[in-house]
Amino acid sequence: MNRVKTDHLGSCKFCFSVSELHQLPLKMGKEVVFAGRSNSGKSSVLNAITGQKSLARSSKTPGRTQHINFFSVEGSKFLVDLPGYGYAKAPKTLKKSWENLLTNYVTARTQICGLVLIMDIRHPLQEKDLLLLDVFLPTGKPIICLLNKADKISKQRFKGAEIKVAKTIQFHSANFKVVSFSATRGIGLAMARKTIIKWLEL
Ligand code: GDP
Fold first, then answer.
1. Measured in angstroms, how far is the CA atom of residue 178 from the centroid of ligand 1?
2. Quick one: which atom of ligand 1 is closest to the CA of 182?
3. Measured between alpha carbons, how far is 159 from 155 in angstroms, rounded to an integer?
4. Where are the beta strands (DSSP E) in the chain?
5. With the C-alpha atoms ordered 163, 4, 46, 113, is the resulting torsion angle positive or negative?
6. Cys-Cys link to 182, which of 9, 23, 107, 151 (CB 3.0-4.6 A)?
7. What predicted TM-score, i.e. pTM, was given to this entire model?
8. Residues in the ligand 1 pocket, defined by CB under 6 Å
């Protein structure tokens, strides 16, 4: 993995998790939210970005996978791990309630200063990714799409995947980046960290 300075993100710690929005403390600082399909590598991406091997293990603890998990950076700013969506085996009603939690969160939360959308580079823009983009894009807030597992395809194919995603988003927002990424190889890591550090004003 690339040796990139983790800056302030390295001090990130698991703070708390909630399953309903009314459980949230009223006063909180800026947040960067992480969203993606289950198995897109969201936990691995969070670990890579913070330079911590098992930070996002807390999100995988049984009982917490359907929660919104908060990781604090420098005390008052947060990386927020939203529940992974599109898990095929989950009951329909449960899936619907996760989706509602997710869409309510990204639209209602004024503290959000940016969205990190994680997609498998081989299968970007699945139905639920598009649903999330549909609700988030009107907020006008910035997005970085991390096309994860880029180590699974040849470098020559990175650009094609990036263009496909960019073409979909560019009609709705000028405030986005699309980056080929690999949590395991460190591809795109410096750009992802730089973007998050800027959004959170660290
Ligand atoms: P989550 O369910 O979205 O949190 O995904 P995980 O982080 O648990 O990863 C799901 C699977 O994808 C695991 O087997 C990971 O080892 C694998 N994975 C995650 N990121 C990468 C990556 O960048 N490259 C490769 N090849 N595999 C990855």
1. 19
2. 23
3. 8
4. 13-18, 31-36, 68-73, 77-81, 112-120, 143-148, 176-180
5. negative
6. 151
7. 0.94
8. 36, 38-44, 84, 148-149, 151-152, 182-184
